[in-house]
Design a protein that fits this description.
Phosphorylation of dTMP to form dTDP in both de novo and salvage pathways of dTTP synthesis. This protein has helices at 25-37, 52-63, 68-92, 103-113, 118-129, 149-157, 170-186, 200-213; strands spanning 12-18, 42-46, 96-100, 141-146, 191-195. By secondary structure, the protein is an alpha/beta fold. Helix 4 (103-113) packs across helix 7. The structure holds adenosine-5'-triphosphate (ATP) and the ligand Cc1cn([C@H]2C[C@H](O)[C@@H](COP(=O)(O)O)O2)c(=O)[nH]c1=O. The ligand Cc1cn([C@H]2C[C@H](O)[C@@H](COP(=O)(O)O)O2)c(=O)[nH]c1=O is lined by residues 20, 46-48, 62, 75, 100-101, 105-106, 109-110, 165.
Length: 216
């Protein structure tokens, strides 16, 4: 990861991460509503996804069989389109971007989960996210919703029909969780761990505290 982060031009770039079923999506809209009430322009978006092309790629990644390299290339292709068409213009306008997953998910799922070489992921990351000055676009703050995979699986079982990732076993999600822990340890100034096993209100309070600590 680069120590030289691209300027957000007055905007805010916040990502939400965690294993499937951690409960992050429920909180994105709450933050968006609060910030909109403060007069901010807010873009709520997700990865893979966020543009017509990236949503098409998302459908493939979530539902078609493929190997780890194909998966990594598709999520980075989706990310490139999403950055170019949505995220960068929004940050340049001074908007707040709330993104349900970003590149940490690639290192956690394709890297730690699938066992794909993180050095190759780091090369792709630079190709996709680096600007002309060599600065890397990454979130200013990442809220990592950390939870035991068994509890997340219980929540998901009650919630919806599983996609290709959600069908994977507990061992896969233990590795993904470990991947997030490594990313958090490598970037402690960017990551805040949220104890996602708590009841919804307690999780919301942790989110609010993390934002307040940034003056957000
Ligand atoms: N704190 C909580 N306690 C109990 N249930 C929760 C909590 N937070 C979310 N849930 C429930 O767990 C399920 C998964 O939540 P949600 O879809 O927000 O997770 P997610 O992290 O966005 O998952 P994914 O990444 O797979 O989309 C939903 O049914 C949601 O209502
Ligand atoms: C960005 C990104 C995502 N994934 C996986 C993680 C999830 O299982 C799905 C997205 O579904 P969600 O309902 O939005 O959580 O995609 C991945 O494997 N690699 C990535 O880079």
């Amino acid at each position: 990861m680069s120590g030289r982060q691209a300027e957000a031009g007055g905007g805010r770039f916040l990502s939400f991460e965690g294993i499937d079923g951690a409960g992050k999506s429920s909180h994105i809209e709450t933050v968006a509503e609060r910030w909109r009430a403060q007069g901010l322009e807010v873009l709520c978006t997700r990865e893979p996804g966020g543009t017509g092309l990236a949503e098409t790629l998302r459908e493939l990644v979530l539902h078609q069989p493929m190997d780890a390299l194909t998966e990594a290339l598709l999520v980075f292709a989706a990310r490139r389109d999403h950055l170019q068409r949505q995220v960068e213009p929004a940050l340049a306008r001074g908007a707040a971007v709330l993104c349900d997953r970003f590149t940490d998910a690639t290192f956690a799922y394709q890297g730690a989960g699938r066992g794909f070489d993180p050095a190759v992921l780091a090369v792709l990351e630079r190709w996709v996210q680096q600007d002309a000055q060599g600065r890397l676009r990454e979130p200013q703050l990442t809220l990592w919703f950390d939870i035991d995979p068994a509890l997340a699986a219980q929540r998901l079982a009650a919630a919806r029909v599983p996609d290709r990732f959600e069908r994977l076993d507990g061992a896969f999600f233990e590795r993904v969780r470990g991947g997030y822990a490594e990313r958090a340890a490598a970037a402690p100034q960017r990551f805040v761990r949220i104890d996602a096993a708590q009841p919804r209100d307690a999780v919301a309070a942790q989110v609010q505290q993390a934002l307040a600590a940034r003056g957000w």
